[in-house]
């Protein structure tokens, strides 16, 4: 092969390489705001459900002080918010569901876990079904104006806020969060 031809082939390969390299960051980026939001909500969802499952039924009544939500009430409060907050975006609650009565329902452990799962399904569907073009639409958020994006961020921050609270309640009661226990078990050297 002649030197000019080798040079053209090398330049062509270099051009392809640079083009591919330039495209990598585009593929490495997430699928966007809604995708990232759902991923973070899924993290809180999974951990809240794991904590609820790891908490003995007798500990659902644990209350760190007078006038403070019990463990079970915290889980039900998350359920309540997962149904109530999407209504601020114009999403209807399921037929027969009154979000304002959930926390006081005193559901047992199995029912609470099922309600957590279905409420996160509802909140996530509300987010997934919101068009990007509607994210900055003005809505009433209790006592002030905001956007649909603001409501979605409240759903996210609310779930993580009460995840933190639930972790504290669990640890006070001697319950190691399951994901922490799994990490600790994986880190232990294998016995020979």
List its salient traits.
61% helix, Four Helix Bundle (Hemerythrin (Met), subunit A), mainly alpha, single chain, 4% strand, 6 helices
Structural commentary:
- There is one protein chain.
- The protein has a single domain, classed as dinb family like domain (Four Helix Bundle (Hemerythrin (Met), subunit A), Up-down Bundle), CATH 1.20.120.
- Helices cover 61% and strands 4% of the residues.
- It has 6 helices and 2 strands.
- It has a two-stranded antiparallel ribbon with strand order 1-2.
- A hairpin with a 2-residue loop joins strand 1 and strand 2.
- The chain is globular and about 60 Å long.
The CATH class name reads Mainly Alpha
Oligomer: single chain
Q: What's the Cα radius of gyration?
A: 24 Å
Annotation, overall tally of beta strands: 2
State the end-to-end distance: 60 Å
Question: Strand count, sense and closure of the main sheet?
Answer: 2 strands, antiparallel
Q: What is the H level of CATH, i.e. the homologous superfamily?
A: dinb family like domain
**What's the helical proportion of residues?**
55-70%
Order of helices and strands: HHHHEEHH
Number of helices: 6
Briefly summarize what is shown.
By secondary structure, the chain is mainly α. It has helices spanning 3-28, 33-54, 71-84, 109-128, 148-172, 178-187; strands at 138-141, 144-147.
Topology:
Elements: H1 3-28, H2 33-54, H3 71-84, H4 109-128, E1 138-141, E2 144-147, H5 148-172, H6 178-187
Antiparallel strand pairs: 1-2
Helix pairs in contact: 2-4, 2-5, 3-4, 3-5
């Amino acid at each position: 092969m002649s030197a000019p031809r080798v040079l053209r082939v090398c330049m062509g390969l270099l051009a392809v390489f640079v083009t591919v390299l330039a495209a990598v960051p585009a593929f490495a980026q997430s699928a966007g705001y809604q995708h990232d939001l759902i991923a973070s909500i899924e993290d809180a969802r999974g951990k809240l459900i794991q904590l609820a499952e790891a908490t003995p039924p007798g500990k659902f009544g644990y209350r760190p002080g007078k006038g403070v939500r019990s463990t079970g009430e915290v889980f039900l409060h998350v359920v309540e918010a997962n149904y109530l907050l999407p209504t601020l975006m114009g999403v209807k609650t399921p037929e027969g569901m009154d979000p304002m009565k959930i926390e006081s329902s005193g559901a047992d452990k199995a029912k609470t876990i099922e309600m957590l799962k279905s409420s996160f399904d509802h909140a996530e569907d509300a987010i997934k079904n919101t068009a990007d073009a509607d994210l900055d639409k003005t809505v009433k958020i209790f006592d002030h104006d905001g956007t649909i994006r603001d409501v979605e961020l409240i759903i996210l921050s609310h779930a993580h806020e009460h995840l933190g609270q639930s972790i504290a309640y669990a640890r006070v009661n001697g319950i190691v969060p399951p994901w922490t226990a799994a990490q600790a078990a994986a880190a232990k050297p294998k016995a020979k």
